[in-house]
Amino acid sequence: MSSFPKSLAVVPGQPFATGFIMAAGASLAVGLAMVVVSMSSVLMSITLALFLALGMTPAVNALKGRGMPHGWSVLTVIVAFVLLMIGIAALVVPAIVRQFTEFLASIPQEIDAIQASQWYTELSESMGFNATEQLLAAFETYFTAENLLALSGGVLHVGMGIVNGISSAFLVIVLTLYFVSTLDPMKLAVARLMPAYRREKFSTTLNSIVFAVGKAVAGAVTLSAINAAVVLVIFLLLGSQVAVLFALMAFLITLIPMIGSVLFLIIGTLGALLISPSAALVFLIAYFIYVQLEAYQVTPRIMGKAVNVPGVLVIIAAMTGAALMGLFGALLAIPITASILIVVREIVIPKRDAQTEPPS
């Protein structure tokens, strides 16, 4: 006898109806998949806002631990977050735009300085050809009228991307504030979906997940902020005109767990090479020393024992997330992995330990 419901069971006398129902179900599944793909940017914004809100829960809990009422704790964190966003928009964004413009304007002078350097001349002689002539030939080959028209279309897409990015950022900020203020009612509503006899265990596990994810997000943002500050100081001491731009790059890249600092070690060294080879060597040594301090001193103190995720799982999760969803997936690697481990440790393993006899 078929295990499907009677309405979906294969009836010998109704092959057309059965095939139609199955085709309709497949079409519905494909349609839902297309809807999810078309709404991917919105879903990513909602997910990012939720994780940011969870990242603020340690601050809310810290204020509550000092005797502040829950409502005032949430309001204080929200006001601090809004002031931080206003400060970034007023101070950091203009500096980044100015330095990026100066960086683009200084590229010809930097190229001339590199070509006039001794190490560039020796490299060209050892390779047996003039690298400058090769670059000019490449420009003449690729910068044709057709390619310039394609480039103008690409610039238009970039402009649209910037507008969409600003609107998405505003949506993320609004949703983050909403999730922070309604996190407890949301957890209660989710728990009420469970049967009454499972709610207590479910609520305990959910609170553990919220705590671990919040600790992971807050810790990752704190580590990236410290990393960006270190990069800013190093580039300012080296005399770079785009120190803020490199600090922003360091903040975003080092959000990637485990491998973000190593990636920026390469990027920052190449960026410092535009100043001078000695500046690149200084950055390489100074930042490498900080990476070691971060790994063995800073990270354990900030993360603590709340996010107990083995390093190999972090690397695997980061690579998998990057392959599936790019940078966004890599950023969510530790929170999602920590959540899965909590479910395994608190639900799956105890359930398996309770099974002392084989099923009858």
Description of the structure:
This protein has 360 residues and is mainly alpha-helical. It folds into two domains: 39-181, no CATH class; 207-350, no CATH class. Helices cover 84% and strands 0% of the residues. It has 13 helices and no strands. The longest helix has 47 residues, at 70-116. It is globular and about 80 Å long.
How is the topology of this model organized?
Layout: H1 15-38, H2 40-65, H3 70-116, H4 118-127, H5 131-142, H6 145-181, H7 183-191, H8 196-237, H9 243-253, H10 260-273, H11 277-303, H12 311-331, H13 333-353
Number of helices: 13
Please report which band the strand proportion falls in: under 5%, 5-15%, 15-25%, 25-35%, 35-45% or over 45%. Answer: under 5%
Largest sheet: none
How many β strands by DSSP?
A: 0
Mean pLDDT: 79
Helix content: over 70%
Q: Which sequence of SSEs, written as H and E, runs from N to C? A: HHHHHHHHHHHHH
Low-confidence stretches at least 5 residues in length (pLDDT < 50)?
A: none
Rg (CA only): 27 Å
Shape: globular
Give the termini distance in whole angstroms. Answer: 22 Å
How does the helix and strand content classify structurally? mainly alpha
How many separate domains make up the residues?
2
